[in-house]
């Protein structure tokens, strides 16, 4: 499940990266507004999947709940970003988009906090395999 979490964060980072590209298209092409709207929906959906993946990675194995806090905070920032975009408050919308991209990159670069320390099993009723030790 931790690999799914990392995949989701990578997808989230890609979606956030494509949003300013579509914003540039919004300024130069007639269909750019639709693309930017689709990119915003994609970021929102991937952020919700990220929260679900963080919960699923934490719950069965007893890992750290830290990724849940990060994913929930990111989702809250995405909601604020959507509201600011709809209200056309670009003076806050653009810097918040940069913050979202940096936050997503930071999450992607961290070692997954939901992985157990080496040599310990995620499940207390099983012994750890010696492959990782």
Could you give the topology of this structure?
Blueprint: H1 2-28, H2 32-58, H3 66-86, H4 90-109
Describe the structure in your own words:
It is built from four helices and no strands. It is mostly helical and 133 residues long. It is elongated. It starts with a helix and ends in a 24-residue tail after the last helix.
How is this structure best summarized?
The protein has 133 residues and is mostly helical. It has helices at residues 2-28, 32-58, 66-86, 90-109.
Which keywords apply here?
single chain; mainly alpha; 71% helix
Number of DSSP strands?
0
Main beta sheet: none
Average pLDDT figure: 85
State the separation between the terminal residues, measured CA to CA.
20 Å
Proportion of strand residues: under 5%
The secondary structure category is mainly alpha
Helical content (DSSP H or I, runs of 4+): over 70%
| Global Rg | 18 Å
Spatial shape: elongated
Discrete helix count = 4
H/E series, N to C? HHHH
Q: Which runs of at least 5 residues are low in confidence (pLDDT < 50)? A: none
